[in-house]
Amino acid sequence: MVKDTINSEDPNYFQNRELSWLDFNARVIEEANDPVNPLLEQLRFLAIGSSNLDEFYKIRVAGLQDQLKMGVVEPDTKKQWSAKKQLQEITKKNKDIVLRQYALLQQKEDQLSEKGVFFKSVKDLNETDKNRARDLFEKEIMPAITPYGIDAYRPFPHLGDGVLHLFVKLEKSGNPFVAIVPVPERLARVHSIYNNDHIYLLMIEDLLFTFLSDLFNGYHVTYSFTFRITRNADLEIQEEGADDLLSAIEDYLEKRKNGMAVRLEIDKRETAVDVQSDIEFIKKALSIKQRDIYIIDGPIDLTFLTEVIPLLEKKGVKEVYESFEPFYPEAYRNSSLYELARRKDLFFHHPFDSFEPIISFVREAAEDPRTASIKQTLYRVSIDSPLIEALKKAAKKGIQVTVLVELKARFDEANNVHWAKELEESGAHILYGVKELKTHSKATLIVKKEADGFRRYVHLGTGNYNEQTARLYTDMGLITSNNEMTQDVFDFFNYLSGYSNQPEYHYLHVSPFDIRDAFIENIEKEIQLHILYGNGHVIAKMNSLTDKKMLLKLYEASQFGVKIELIVRGICCLIPGIPGVSDNITVRSIIGRFLEHSRVYYFHHNGEENLYLSSADMMTRNMIKRVEIAFPVLDQSLKAHILSILKLYLYDNTKAWVLQSNGEYVKSSNSEDKLIHAQKELLAIRASLPSPLPEKKSKRSWSDRLRSLFFTS
């Protein structure tokens, strides 16, 4: 069998990554319309959509705008679009998505009103409640407000990134004046007053509109409106020649505060007059393009909805997800994880499995006098990280602690600078990563001096060492004492901390480049075995799929008849179902309660079944611009269990979106007799399981329980 050669430059075979990301955000926003989600959780999805879009503009759109300004003519590698064309297409698609987002917000407001919760303007309140609103304004808002006039002596003020501002038009003695009023970020965006059984939610900007005259004594307020800008955060960190990367990062953080404006949002609801001349004034002051101006018929920045949810919960609106307790087997609580890991690899699937054993893994090492060293990579950690405390404690006890703190973790730079300093002060050895690369791998190595000599223990994972996000993101990890695997991780850390070429590993694949090479080799092997046996099968679960070499290799495998099932949460530049090219490929995206973050790669290999977990997506940045790890699952029972999880996601007909050959996503049909909701099923199954250790086996294995979900009626 000989495959037809495809034109790798044909734009019809690929989706633009920026538009694909916007499709992902549209799916997130659409969760606000899914009755499976409780009402307050639907509000949360609207907030997440806004937060996602802010970051998209700060990084991706800002980068394209920079290309345009610098005259870069090189098109994107998929659709062959210029930066200008991409910006035009982004605006076209995103404006439709934003319209849908605000239509859903109105729908949610109507549903809240049925429960006695109302978003109110002060002007619509009765006199008693108006007086309460004034009292609230005078006590909780006005003392923190500083208005800025604009004239020959008072220049246009600096506008903070993401900060709400009021543009105010004033008049005195027939003369016009302009002022801008920033709304301090530390003030609550939403305030509430209660009237019998009703809750009235008042937006801070509406309170300011109503009582603006208090800020401009002697002037008449003609009109005002709210606006907000987003600034470029896609700045280069200048590593070349930096004697101290820590100082370079701190300098970069200061510069980022003053990045160029990349988006202007305007809330038009309070303006009965034509404000186009005022918009032109702001537009000129910010040097912003018309395409990047959004006129919104609603409150700007829906992230404020995250304030509304706990407020309403306290007042008795309980329509949120049912709380759950991650599975934490008694065996892990009552026994040393190190003793257990000597007998069997330990598998974790968060948040269904507790993250506490991972913390205990480091804490126990810090307390054990036999511990010789602890080494760990940290990319994103929580503000009050218990892992940091354990590492500091170990260092103070004289244990050799080596921590690679990735200072270039986007939007976590300041947090990581803080932890790097604290760890260094405690006596830990701190590494700041690899020059020109981000270290995105998730690895911990513990070395102990035991009765039979030194023994190494390792944790490897797909997600960050962050106990808070471990309750919100799905991730997988292993603790193992396998000699060759732990030797690999030992060599990996020595590669990071010293001077040496990339080691030869037994099991690990480490980017830059090696992970992509390994996956391409696995796909080529799958093709060859499929030619011989006709049972080729690849399953891959990841956050995003953009790397062109991987796309072309997947197309090639499809042309040979290999069955390829992709679970891609976010960006997917591959188009399935193209006759003769990708008709053996399916793509689905799971959007639900938990952010699907685990990366799993399965190759059938005629029953040999190679299965890898990884910190890396199939993205070019992960393959050649980062230090990432892909590691195999060696234990056959764990491999079967993970494969069952993958199949459960493939059978999900409740939260899955299926990518069509025209590039559109369609919600998976749930017309089947049995509804499958993967995340919900995993919560239920995992909570019912006993300890996963040999002496306490369940009568039905975890894989059997999973299979029963979609093979029985």
Question: If you had to describe this structure to a student in words, what would you say it looks like?
Answer:
The chain is α/β, with parallel strands linked by helices and about 725 residues long. It has three domains: about 115-315, Polyphosphate kinase middle domain (polyphosphate kinase like, 2-Layer Sandwich), CATH 3.30.1840; about 330-495, Endonuclease Chain A (Endonuclease, Chain A, 2-Layer Sandwich); about 510-710, 2-Layer Sandwich (Endonuclease, Chain A). It has 20 helices and 27 strands. Strands 14, 18, 19, 20, 21, 23, 24, 25, 26 and 27 form a ten-stranded mixed beta sheet that branches. Helix 12 links the parallel strand 11 (about 370-380) and strand 12. The relative contact order is 0.09.
**What is the CATH C-level name of the largest domain?**
Alpha Beta
Count of helical segments? 20
- Give the oligomeric state of the chains in this entry, treating copies of one chain as homo and distinct chains as hetero: single chain
Roughly how much helix do the residues carry, as a percent range?
25-40%
What is the fold-level CATH name, i.e. the topology of the largest domain?
A: Endonuclease, Chain A
Task: Label the structural class.
Answer: alpha/beta
GO biological process, one term: polyphosphate biosynthetic process
Function: Catalyzes the reversible transfer of the terminal phosphate of ATP to form a long-chain polyphosphate (polyP).
Catalytic activity: [phosphate](n) + ATP = [phosphate](n+1) + ADP
Family: Belongs to the polyphosphate kinase 1 (PPK1) family.
